[in-house]
Automatic annotation (TrEMBL):
Pfam entry (one): GDPD
Protein name as it appears in the record: Glycerophosphodiester phosphodiesterase
Transmembrane parts of this sequence: none
UniProt cross-references to Gene3D superfamilies, sorted A to Z: Phosphatidylinositol (PI) phosphodiesterase (3.20.20.190)
Domain of life assignment: Bacteria
Residues annotated as domain GP-PDE: 27-271
């Protein structure tokens, strides 16, 4: 086990711990520059979210509304870049912290002046759809990301949107998340799961990483279908998301994901997960 919560080696296979919303541990607030830069310096996999704002750029935020994660109110879509930069992030308990909301260009500027470890990977997870991507939004994305795109992967559930943004940006990997709300109500049989992963791989032929809810992977496994093996056979890597808390149930689930040779596990508590996996508890 690596000293920092970066990866675990299991049966000759390395699985990364992805720092979800740039958290190293469960108590961390979301999207702070300190944690993002730490992860990139250490060579970790780290994720931030992108939402389009009123000035045709991107805010580093998960929600479309400002009320939960920041000291602002209203929608990100209606907020200007200058207004967003004046807002503070909130801790997990809702208390404002000293870090302000970052825009994508702010984050990319930080990465330019703080070079990343060669193994580091920053996932930009686009939270909206193709309809939000005007030519100006696409151009602003490319201008911000291109100087540091070699350290990034762009993901989202709308593969057309991901493709459009990536096409304007040099050297940017892409990923695809075909998981949707209620998916386990629709997929029941082994044939359902097999058809699902085949369709996802066909829909996103250039996606280097396929992002799947860990519950979906395990439900398919129980039905006798190995979604990870199917992706690997098509030369893709698989991220299983999101282990939110570390407890005996989730540790057993993580161990099964490791047996299935998942490439990356997204978690809100990389440090806690790494500690418990090192102890061998389940």
């Amino acid at each position: 086990m690596h000293t920092d919560p970066i990866f675990i080696e299991s049966d000759g296979h390395r699985t990364l711990f992805k720092w979800h919303r740039a958290r190293r541990k469960a108590s961390d607030p979301e999207f702070t520059p300190t944690r993002i830069l730490e992860a990139m310096r250490l060579g970790a996999s780290v994720e931030v979210d992108l939402v389009v704002h009123a000035d045709q750029g991107f805010a580093i935020l998960h929600d479309l509304e400002l009320d939960y994660g920041t000291t602002g109110t209203g929608t990100v879509a209606a907020a200007s870049a200058n207004h967003l930069r004046q807002l503070f992030l909130r801790a997990n308990d809702g208390t404002p912290i000293g870090d302000r909301v970052m825009l994508l260009e702010d984050l990319c500027a930080l990465l330019k002046t703080n070079p990343a470890h060669p193994d580091a990977l920053l996932q930009l997870d686009y939270k909206e759809d193709l309809s939000r991507l005007s030519p100006s939004v696409v151009a602003n994305f490319a201008a911000a990301v291109s100087p540091v795109s070699h350290t990034m992967i762009l993901s989202g559930g709308d593969i057309a949107a991901v493709t459009l943004l990536a096409a304007a940006t040099l050297d940017l990997q892409t990923g695809y998340d075909p998981t949707y709300v209620g998916i386990l109500d629709d997929l029941k049989s082994a044939e359902d799961f097999s058809n699902f992963i085949a369709a996802a791989l066909k829909r996103a032929p250039d996606a280097a990483m396929i992002y799947l809810a860990y519950e979906l992977i395990l439900a398919a496994d129980a039905a006798g279908v190995d979604l990870i093996a199917a992706a690997h056979a098509d030369k893709r890597r698989v991220d299983a998301w999101t282990i939110r808390s570390i407890n005996p149930t989730t540790l057993r689930q993580v161990r099964r994901l490791l047996e299935l040779r998942v490439d990356q596990i997204t978690t809100d508590d990389p440090e806690g997960l790494a500690v418990q996996m090192a102890k061998g508890t389940a």
